Amino acid sequence: MKRVLVTGARGMLGTELALALRGTAEVVAVDVEDFDVRDADETSAAIAGIHPDVVVNCAAYTDVDGAETDRELAFAVNAAGAGNVARGAAIAGARVLHISTDYVFDGTKREPYLEGDEPAPLNVYGESKLAGEREVAQRTAEHLIVRTSWLYGRAGGNFVETILSLAEREDTLRVVVDQVGTPTYARDLAVILKQLVSGAATGVVNATNSGSCSWFGFARTILEAAGKSGVSVLPVGTATFPRPARRPTNSLLDLRRLVSIIGWEPRPWREALTEYIAERQTGER
After folding, report:
1. Looking at domain 3-157+184-209, does it have CATH number 2.30.110.10?
2. The model's pTM
């Protein structure tokens, strides 16, 4: 049984991954109170003391708009911190899975992005995550960078919860229609990571649910699944809602490499969302 260290274990993905790995791996789940990935020596010492076979780095600064004014913190966690985790893992002889994002791309491509496409982030968050990818690749050859998109789940704020919260207070919601991507349920990504942990793939791989939609389509499906028939959704352009951080128009990630590695295609995003909403309403897991 492999010993798997999960950093950022109190976050949305880390929480689900720690649960998914139970019974198939010896899981050591840590967060910032255990050690701070921004401190290279502390990180290396902590990882050495744990003796993991695999490190899954879910620790991240994820406030996309906040990164525009807090660039130093975003890079400290997402770039230097990622490098520190990879360095510590390399010293300990552990393989690294590092979580990254669709935001490393500028969204101008018409087709889904391949792992080998040239990154060109539009915002500080994407820049910091791309820098983190490069830090990981420089620190250890035994790495797999996992890019995902539009993540939601029970342990943290996300688009699904925002829409449901707004629907309690407003009859009409205006949601961007000219940005396309794949909503990804953190639990489904955790199942994918569980299989990647047990394998030996290296390099970069995209991992999301399957299918695509706009934020507008995502919002409508959320409300339908939650039975919020009295709330309407109006499509608007990105220019209607200027944000501090620019977003890519196309966030779709090609899943063919993932399918070749794990042997199956992730389920459609609508199916995953319906399950999430149903469990949210009943309080079940």
Report:
1. no
2. 0.95
